[in-house]
Each structure stands twice: as structure tokens, then as C-alpha cells.
Specification:
- The chain contains 10 helices and 11 strands.
- By secondary structure, it is of the alpha+beta class.
- The chain is 29% helix and 21% strand.
- It has 2 domains: 192 residues, D-amino Acid Aminotransferase, Chain A, domain 1 (2-Layer Sandwich), CATH 3.30.470; 77 residues.
- The strands form 2 sheets. Strands 5, 6, 7, 8, 9, 10 and 11 form a 7-stranded mixed beta sheet that branches. Strands 1-4-2-3 form a 4-stranded antiparallel beta sheet, with no helix packed on it.
């Protein structure tokens, strides 16, 4: 008899996402007429299978895009090694500080110093390469990322989190810059317009400290727009350290569709986002059918 896990895996991803949405929110996702930002994110997660999205959750592909599309505007952390077997790092000369992370998932990061200890790293990263991270929230682009690990140069000073700047871009136009400071219980957020007027929202986090505009605000906005060309919505993340602007990552699914946005900002962001048609979104991919209606019943 199949286990509950196997039974779950036999269910199409969009159906699992619909069930998850209903469990979290108490209602079904409005897939026919999504209006708010979070509703449209869930529409994207459930239905959008365009090739455009496929490389956006592959860290090595993101970095290639940043080098190609925003030269001179942003620095991209050097990749020191990539692969699936950390034992190879025994032969790699690493700098004083470095970062190891999966290529195909997020929320897993190891900060290292000096020469690598492959045995320790193998233990600490056990299961990372084979992890099907996309199953956590049914985010399709993560399923298209190449499984593996990478080591890149460390940005900033160990023990100090550089300023994290996240730019929401709609149809090529940067609309909001989120300034994230701290981590964990100290995580704070400030929202700003592109011309650095403060906005009153915190998305469920504590308010961060007042933030001056980045020294290279124009380059930040130009790089975000360049990296989001062709996307109806994309968040482009950067770090600022010692006046330098560093590329962080591309984010097609901010917050996984669960961010506790205030209702007015959820509606405002949603008003800026024009979704593609259903036919364009589903082109060449699995198209929802009777199973969707069955899940909603």
C-alpha cells in the first residue's frame, strides 16, 4: 500500500498548492480573477510555466544573467567552485572567507574560513544535493534549477549582515525598494519609492532603522530594470557594502506567496502586475484540468 507521502507525490503540483493555500488561508486561491499581489503570486505558482521563469531559481544561471545584462552596474560574487561532491574542495584554494550554498534551493548557507574540511562539509550538507526544494511550496522554477552546490566569495564582514536591497520590478519599471536589515528576531524592513520616499509598510516585520539612499541608487534601479527585462514581475535582490553594489539573486516568488502584506500594499502591488494570459503561461507545460476542480470541491 503506498505511503501518504507517495500518495501526495502522485497528486499534480497545482492541486497540492491549492490544498496548501486553502489550509493556510481558509479559502481557495482566486485563479480566475486574482487581484492582489499575493493572489497573483499564487496564480504564477499554480499556472505559470513559461520558459522565461525556468532559470530564475538557478543561482549559477542568475549570476550569468547579472554579468551579461548589468555589466558595470553591479558586482557579481565570484564562483570559486561548483559541483555535487564537496570532497573536490580539498583541491581548491579558498580565500579567508567564503560561502557554500545549494544551486537549486534557498535558506541553506554555510560560511567558511580558509581551507575546507571536506568531511565536515559532507556531514553538514548531507541531503542538500538531492533535496527537492520545489516541493516545499510547489514553486516550478526551483524544479528547473540544476541540483548541486557552489562556493562563492563572501560579501561584507563576517558577523555583520550587509544592507539587503530588494527591488520589485513590474513590466520593466522598478516600483518599490525594500531595505532589509538584521536577521532572525532582529529582522527589520523599510519600504521606499524609487526616489527614496519612505512608505508606511513593513510586511509583518518590525520597522527597520531609517535608511539613507544607497550611494549608487541610480545604478541599483538601472540594474534591477535590466535584469527584469521581459518579466511582468520580478524581484531583484542586491547587497550594498562599502559603497559597492553586489548582485544577490532573482526572486520570481517573493515570500512564496505567503508574505503578510498589509491589505493596501497587497492591493497596490497587485494593481501594477499585469499577468500573462493563461494560454501563454501554460505553453508547453502541464495544463490544469479536471483535477483542479476536484481539489477545489
Amino acid at each position: 500500500m503506498p505511503t501518504a507521502d507517495r500518495q501526495s507525490r502522485a497528486v499534480p503540483p497545482v492541486v497540492r498548492r491549492i490544498r496548501q493555500y486553502r489550509q493556510v488561508t481558509g479559502r481557495l486561491p482566486p485563479l480566475l480573477r486574482p487581484r492582489t499581489f499575493n493572489e497573483k503570486l499564487n496564480w504564477r505558482i499554480c499556472l505559470d510555466r513559461r520558459a522565461l521563469l525556468a532559470p530564475t531559481c538557478d543561482k549559477l544561471a542568475m549570476k550569468d544573467s547579472a554579468r551579461r545584462l548589468a555589466p558595470g552596474l553591479v558586482r557579481v560574487p565570484r564562483t570559486l567552485w561548483s559541483g555535487t561532491d564537496v570532497r573536490e574542495l580539498a583541491e581548491v584554494g579558498l580565500p579567508r572567507h567564503w560561502v557554500l550554498k545549494p544551486n537549486h534551493s534557498c535558506r541553506r548557507v554555510l560560511v567558511g574560513a580558509g581551507a575546507a574540511d571536506p568531511a565536515v562539509l559532507a556531514d553538514r550538507t548531507a541531503g542538500w544535493v538531492g533535496e527537492e526544494y520545489w516541493r516545499l511550496n510547489e514553486e516550478w522554477a526551483y524544479r528547473r534549477a540544476r541540483p548541486g552546490l557552489l562556493v562563492e566569495e563572501f560579501v561584507g564582514v563576517p558577523g555583520h549582515v550587509p544592507v539587503d536591497l530588494k527591488v520589485l520590478v513590474f513590466a520593466g519599471v522598478p516600483r518599490v525598494v525594500e531595505v532589509h536589515t538584521g536577521r532572525g528576531a532582529q529582522h527589520g524592513i523599510r519600504f521606499h519609492t524609487p526616489d527614496w520616499q519612505p512608505l508606511p509598510w513593513t510586511a509583518g516585520y518590525r520597522p527597520g532603522p531609517p535608511a539613507p539612499p544607497p550611494r549608487r541608487l541610480d545604478d541599483l534601479l538601472a540594474a534591477a530594470a535590466a535584469l527584469a527585462v521581459g518579466f511582468d514581475m520580478l524581484r531583484v535582490d542586491f547587497y550594498e557594502h562599502d559603497g559597492e553594489l553586489w548582485f544577490g539573486e532573482l526572486t520570481p516568488y517573493p515570500g512564496g506567496g505567503w508574505t503578510a502584506l498589509e491589505p493596501d500594499v497587497d492591493a497596490l502591488l497587485g494593481s501594477w502586475w499585469a499577468l500573462p494570459g493563461r494560454r501563454a503561461a501554460a505553453a508547453g507545460a502541464w495544463t490544469p484540468g479536471p483535477a483542479v476542480e476536484e481539489a477545489a470541491a
